[in-house]
């Protein structure tokens, strides 16, 4: 069964090119206050993994929650929805974005009791 993410957000790239393979995306949400019934804007910034370093400043992007890439990055760039053609007239929007390269986990060393139990099971 393929991975079904809980968190997919649309936002704007507010910082790009400062950190390697990382962009900062600001996601804005609008909701109605329960008591005063007034619309309120809130925003949150996410560090997003950009494997090919294709996102530019002020791009409208879709990000998706996935495996943690570092201590603060657990989102990755899924698609670039729009780009400002006045700032970047010669650069088209890339259609295919590369997947993040995930390192294999290290094998856990067995303790004495686990090694004995594994030998016992193997002999049976």
From TrEMBL:
GO molecular function terms noted in the UniProt entry: structural constituent of ribosome
GO CC terms of this entry: mitochondrion; ribonucleoprotein complex; ribosome
A Pfam family it matches: Ribosomal_S17
GO biological process terms, semicolon-separated: translation
Top-rank taxon: Eukaryota
Family: Belongs to the universal ribosomal protein uS17 family.
Identification of the protein by name: 30S small subunit ribosomal protein S17
Organism field: Kwoniella bestiolae CBS 10118
């Amino acid at each position: 069964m393929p991975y079904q993410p809980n968190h997919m957000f649309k936002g704007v790239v507010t910082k790009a090119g400062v950190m390697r393979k990382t962009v900062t995306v600001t996601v804005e949400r609008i909701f109605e206050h329960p008591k005063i019934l007034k619309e309120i804007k809130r925003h949150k910034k996410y560090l997003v993994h950009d494997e090919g370093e294709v996102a530019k400043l002020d791009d409208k992007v879709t990000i998706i929650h996935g495996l943690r890439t570092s201590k603060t990055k657990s989102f990755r760039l899924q698609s670039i929805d729009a780009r400002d053609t006045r700032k970047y007239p010669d650069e088209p929007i890339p259609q295919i974005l590369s997947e993040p390269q995930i390192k294999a986990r290290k094998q856990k060393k067995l303790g004495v009791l686990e090694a004995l139990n594994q030998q016992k099971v193997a002999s049976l």
